[in-house]
Amino acid sequence: MVRQVNALQAEKVPQIDDALIKCSNLFDLLKDDSGNVVFDGGRNIDELSVLFMTVPGLDKDAARSQVAATLRMVMQRAGRKRKDQRRSVTLYLDEASALTTKQGSLGLEEIAERGRSQGVAMVFAGQSPESLAADKWSLDRLLKACAGGVLIGYGENFGELCKHFGSRRVMLPSRHLIKGQRHGDEGQVSVGEKWLVDPDRVRQFETGDFVFAKKGRAFYGRIVPLDTKRLTPLPGTAAAKKTATQPGIGGAATAAA
């Protein structure tokens, strides 16, 4: 009983060892009549190469349990000893900030670090940097594990996040004043430091503006609406064949430029 109380205070599932072993494969046992694991799409997790997880925004306990169980299943399959049974999966986590509590997150930094060598890539989003980790040390570790880069939208007071990307050297020219009234022909040039991702510029972003930072470079862009009717499907795909037989089929979507 004492162990279960301690587990509750630590926000862990209060299960004894034998029950934990029985429940570790619970999601694998949840199958439909055809033997497929019950997901929203009715697909087996062994058949998925891209998994997009939406998180319930109001029920944090349910969200943590669902995402934790799914991440466990993915990592179990990624770590199989037989190479023909391993899975390379890209995970998209819609709202990671809905999973963070005062006790910490679900260990996203562990998956970002350990899953990289196992063929597991993770893309996650949060309302703010502080919503992704319970403390600064965990946040710094998580940011350092983002080998694919970081995409930043509008936000106030993002100085600590922008500091993670460091600075770059710039030339700072100056010109002498003649009698303190006008610029002369002489001057000097000095070397200074400038933010790679300027928090003041991030603060001035409009809706749709973003910056992508990776490997000492920052790329600024804007997300714009895109009409799929103006796009041509790739040759040989099912969409190309469908368009050829039924022209004019399409719809509106949103894409990143």
What does this structure look like?
The chain is extended. Strand 5 (167-178) and strand 6 form a beta hairpin. Helices cover 28% and strands 25% of the residues. It is built from nine helices and nine strands. It has one domain (10-230): Rossmann fold. The protein has helices at 2-9, 17-23, 26-29, 60-78, 108-114, 136-144, 159-163, 199-203, 238-245; strands at 50-53, 89-93, 120-124, 150-152, 167-178, 182-195, 209-214, 217-227, 252-256. Strands 4-7-8-9 form a four-stranded antiparallel sheet, with no helix packed on it. With 257 residues, the chain is of the alpha/beta class.
Distinctive features:
disordered C terminus; Rossmann fold; extended; 9 helices; 257 residues
Separation of the first and last Cα atoms: 56 Å
Instruction: Give me the secondary-structure category.
Output: alpha/beta
What string gives the helices and strands in order? HHHEHEHEHEHEEHEEHE
Number of strands: 9
Strand residue content: 25-35%
Q: Give the C-alpha Rg.
A: 25 Å
Gross morphology: extended
> Which architecture name does CATH use?
3-Layer(aba) Sandwich
SS field, number of helical segments: 9
Question: How is the CATH topology named?
Answer: Rossmann fold
Number of domains: 1
Biggest beta sheet attributes: 4 strands, antiparallel
Broad CATH class = Alpha Beta
Strand order within the widest sheet?
4-7-8-9
